[in-house]
Design brief:
60 residues; mainly alpha; Erythroid Transcription Factor GATA-1, Chain A; 1 helix; 27% helix; 0% strand; elongated; binds zinc ion
C-alpha cells in the first residue's frame, strides 16, 4: 500500500502539488482562501430588514 495518494485540487480538479496541498498551485490556494474569506464576510451580523430579499430572476 505504498501507492502515492494524489488528491485532486478542490478548485480545478487537477492533481494537487505537494507544496500547495491540497491545491495544485498557489493560484488555486488563493482562490480557495478568497472563497473562505468571502463566506466569512458573508455572515450577516446585523441585517436591516427594511429591504426585501432580492427575488431570483426566473429564467425562462
Ligand atoms: Zn487547482
Amino acid at each position: 500500500m505504498s501507492r502515492e495518494r494524489r488528491e485532486a485540487c478542490p478548485i480545478c480538479r487537477r492533481p494537487s502539488a505537494p507544496e500547495f496541498r491540497p491545491f495544485c498551485s498557489q493560484r488555486c490556494a488563493d482562490v480557495d482562501l478568497g472563497r473562505w474569506l468571502n463566506e466569512r464576510y458573508a455572515i450577516p451580523e446585523e441585517i436591516d430588514s427594511d429591504e426585501p430579499p432580492p427575488e431570483p430572476d426566473p429564467e425562462r
